[in-house]
Design a protein that fits this description.
By secondary structure, this protein is α+β, with helices and mostly antiparallel strands. It has one helix spanning about 1-40, and strands at about 40-45, 60-65, 75-80, 80-90, 95, 105, 110, 130, 135-140, 155-160, 160-170, 175-180. The strands form 2 sheets. Strands 1, 2, 3, 4, 9, 10, 11 and 12 form an 8-stranded antiparallel beta sheet that branches.
C-alpha cells in the first residue's frame, strides 16, 4: 500500500515537472521568436550580389536601426523580397561612378575594400546623381552582376524599406564574424 502511494506521488511529481518544463520551453521559444522578429531578425543569404562579403547560404543577424552611413550593409524590402545591399549615399549626397567603377560621394572617392572587382555595371541613371530626401543609394558588392540603385528599376531606396543593418554572420560557423 505504501509502495503504491509512493509510486502515485512520484508519477504526480513527474507530470508536474514535465508540464513546467514544457511551459518554460514554450515561453522561451515565444520570447526568442519575438526578439528575432522585432529586434534581431535572422536571414539566409540568397544570391551572389554581395560576394565576396556574403555568399549564397550564409546566415546573418540584423539589428533594427534608423541611422545608416556609407558602408553599412543593410537588408531592404523590394517587391516583396528581402535584398542585401551596401549604403553608398544618404539623402542629399551626390553620387558619381566613373567608367572604371570608382565611386565618388560628394566628389570624394570612397574606399571600398569589400569590392574585389570594380565595375560600372548595368546603369541607366545619369551621373552625377543627387540622392533624394529620405532615400539611400545602395549598391551590391559584386558590382558586375548586382541590380541596385544604378538601375532606375530599383532606384534609391526609401528609408522605410530598410529592415536593418547586418551586424553578424553566424553561418557557416567557421566564417562567423562581425560585419562592418
Amino acid at each position: 500500500m505504501a509502495a503504491e502511494r509512493e509510486r502515485l506521488n512520484y508519477r504526480s511529481r513527474f507530470r508536474r515537472a514535465l508540464r513546467g518544463t514544457i511551459y518554460a520551453l514554450i515561453v522561451v521559444a515565444a520570447v526568442a521568436a519575438l526578439a528575432a522578429t522585432n529586434f534581431l531578425p535572422v536571414l539566409r543569404v540568397s544570391g551572389s550580389s554581395m560576394e565576396p562579403t556574403l555568399s549564397d547560404g550564409d546566415i546573418i543577424v540584423l539589428v533594427k536601426s534608423s541611422d545608416f552611413e556609407t558602408g553599412d550593409l543593410v537588408s531592404l524590402y523590394y517587391q516583396n523580397k528581402l535584398l542585401l545591399k551596401r549604403v553608398i549615399g544618404g539623402p542629399g549626397d551626390v553620387i558619381y561612378i566613373d567608367e572604371e567603377g570608382n565611386v565618388y560621394v560628394n566628389d570624394e572617392l570612397i574606399d571600398e575594400p569589400y569590392v574585389t572587382e570594380k565595375a560600372l555595371g548595368d546603369t541607366d541613371i545619369t551621373y552625377p546623381y543627387q540622392v533624394p530626401e529620405n532615400r539611400y543609394f545602395v549598391l551590391g558588392d559584386n558590382r558586375a552582376t548586382s541590380v541596385d540603385s544604378r538601375s532606375s528599376e530599383i532606384g534609391c531606396i526609401d528609408k522605410d524599406q530598410i529592415v536593418g543593418k547586418v551586424i553578424l554572420r553566424v553561418w557557416p560557423l567557421n566564417q562567423m564574424k562581425i560585419i562592418q
